[in-house]
Design a protein that fits this description.
single chain, mainly alpha, 5 helices
Length: about 80
């Protein structure tokens, strides 16, 4: 895994995206490309890296219909 991908992975983990979901995204090159493009677009639009990860984490939770607080208890 390259440094940029590791950075995105860790930042999304900081915003409570479960490892199992991230592992699934990172295992599919097509999904990973979409994630990297979205992250880069947000940074290019002036978002900080943390704010970009925060926005993407919101999208992940919304798309999967997961409550971010619930994901914490599921992973323990």
């Amino acid at each position: 895994m390259d440094v940029q991908r590791l950075n995105i992975y860790e930042r999304l983990r900081d915003f409570k995206v479960p490892s199992s979901i991230l592992d699934e995204i990172f295992s599919e090159e097509k999904d990973l490309k979409i994630l990297e493009d979205a992250y880069s677009a947000l940074v290019d639009d002036g978002f900080s890296e943390d704010d970009s990860a925060k926005e993407i984490s919101k999208m992940v939770f919304k798309e999967l219909d997961i409550d971010p607080d619930q994901s914490l208890t599921d992973e323990k």
